Amino acid sequence: MKKMLFTCLTFSVLLISSTVSAENISNNNNNNNNNQKTKAMKFELPKLPYATNALEPVIGQQTIELHYGKHLQTYITNLNNLIVGTKFENVDLETIVKESDGAIFNNAGQTLNHNIYFLSFSPNGGGEPKGKLADAINAEWGSFENFKKEFVAAGVGVFGSGWVWLSKDNAGKLYITKEPNAGNPITKGNTPLLGFDVWEHAYYLDYQNRRADHLAELWKIIDWNAVSARY
Ligand SMILES: [Fe+2]
Questions:
Q1: Signed CA dihedral, 220, 225, 229, 231: sign only
Q2: What's the pTM?
Q3: Distance 116 CA to ligand 1 centre (A)
Q4: Ligand 1 centroid to residue 227 C-alpha, Å
Q5: List of residues 6+ apart from 172 with CB closer than 8 A
């Protein structure tokens, strides 16, 4: 009887020990997964300061939902996955864009580009910049109208997918530059102020092949307060 009781107790202890051990392993796995998830979720979609239909008719709701919710989200997800286990795992976005190449550069560049792009709009935007940015634009191009013409012409002149950028150098001098694909003037030492996306995904639903018409309309929704704050 004593022997039987001892056997039962031993079996119970083993069973409890085995359960606790399994729980520990399970918890450890969950923690590892959570850690991986935390690292993989490093970069996130920026919150839009407007509703997805608020920029109509310049940019349609479906375009915003796809461009912001799908295209940008995909760049961010790809970037988060690609940097795991690399030297870029705990590095800020601008540094990744400056120092990476290949797939990491493409997805980091597009994440940075679109973050700037989507935070340059307002349903109450339009008009002209004021203050020192306006002064710098006038100094470089003579007038705001001339600047807009040159900016749109540069955007129309990008062959294939890419961006047209207004940027400044360390002395505050302004530049209009064309960049292919995920390019950003930050890679050449300049600070990006305003970028128009000339990938077809930015305008095809609303303007089909009429890129010039799309670029000409964008001025109506530019948030010059946001753009000027980058100058
Ligand atoms: Fe885009």
A1: positive
A2: 0.82
A3: 11
A4: 18
A5: 132, 136, 231
Q: Please state which CATH number belongs to domain 61-118.
A: 1.10.287.990
Centre of ligand 1 from the C-alpha of residue 48, in Å: 15
Going from the Cα of 160 to the center of ligand 1, the distance in angstroms, rounded, reads 13
Taking a 5 Å cut-off on Cβ, the residues next to ion ligand 1 are 197, 199, 202
Q: pLDDT per position in the chain (231 positions), as tens?
A: 444 444 444 444 343 333 333 333 333 333 444 444 444 459 999 999 999 999 999 999 999 999 999 999 999 999 999 999 999 999 999 999 999 999 999 999 999 999 999 999 999 999 999 999 999 999 999 999 999 999 999 999 999 999 999 999 999 999 999 999 999 999 999 999 999 999 999 999 999 999 999 999 999 999 999 999 999
5 Cα: distance to centroid of ligand 1 (angstroms): 72
Domain 131-228 maps to which CATH number in 3.55.40.20, 3.30.565.10, 3.50.30.10, 1.10.1130.10?
A: 3.55.40.20
Hey, CA dihedral for 78, 121, 52, 57, is it positive or negative?
negative
For the chain, domain boundaries: 61-118, 131-228
